[in-house]
Amino acid sequence: MPAIQDQNLSATQVIALTRAMLSVAHVDGIQPAEAAMIGQFYESSRSGDMPTTATLMSDNAAFDAGALAGSTPDVADTVVLMCLMTGYADGQLSADERGVVTQIASALGVSTVRFDELVGQVRDELIGALSHLPDAGSIAAVVRELDAGA
């Protein structure tokens, strides 16, 4: 997966991306793993003149795709990837979470074909992260769950 640090995101883009991630997490109630991931992303991307992590995490402002209007395809891909990772952070991307990410992708001009590629990329990354584990049966069960949610 492309490293977010490889991109020079503006403060506006970082805040919008964080709000996009929060919109996915709030679909079925923000889970601790989702909150940790979002908080870690924001804190590592935040500059001193931006709202604190706690402020942004407690802010109920809705995601506004207009804040990312004119973004490059790489930035749009990053937003979608981070939103998918947020959805999967609690172990499963629900249909409702996927629907929200699909709406975000559409608003950012990400095609359906590209969206499906990004879902596959996140899925492959998650499977790769587990591949070193010795219990092949458990890994196979996780792969089946990922396939069921895709």
Helix content: 55-70%
| CATH fold group | TerB-like
The major β-sheet equals:
none
Question: What portion of the residues fall into strands of 2 or more residues?
Answer: under 5%
Beta strand count: 0
Instruction: Catalogue the unreliable spans.
Output: 1-6
Q: What's the CATH H-level homologous superfamily?
A: TerB-like
Task: Domain count, please report it.
Answer: 1
CATH architecture assignment:
Orthogonal Bundle
Rg over CA atoms: 15 Å
- Identify the quaternary structure here: single chain
For the record, the CATH class is Mainly Alpha
* Silhouette: globular
Helix and strand string, N-terminal first? HHHHHHH
**SS-derived structural category:** mainly alpha
Distance between the termini: 18 Å
Q: Total helix count?
A: 7
Task: State mean pLDDT (0 to 100 scale).
Answer: 84
Can you describe what's shown?
The structure is a single chain. By secondary structure, this protein is mainly α. The chain has one domain (4-149): TerB-like. It is built from 7 helices and no strands. The chain has helices at 11-25, 32-45, 53-58, 73-88, 95-107, 112-130, 136-149. α1 (11-25) runs antiparallel to α2 (32-45), α4 (73-88) runs antiparallel to α5 (95-107) and α4 (73-88) crosses α6 (112-130). The longest helix has 19 residues, at 112-130. The protein is globular and about 35 Å long. The two termini are 18 Å apart. The model is unreliable at 1-6 (pLDDT under 50).
Topology:
Layout: H1 11-25, H2 32-45, H3 53-58, H4 73-88, H5 95-107, H6 112-130, H7 136-149
Jot down its keywords.
7 helices; globular; about 150 residues; mainly alpha; TerB-like; single chain; about 65% helix
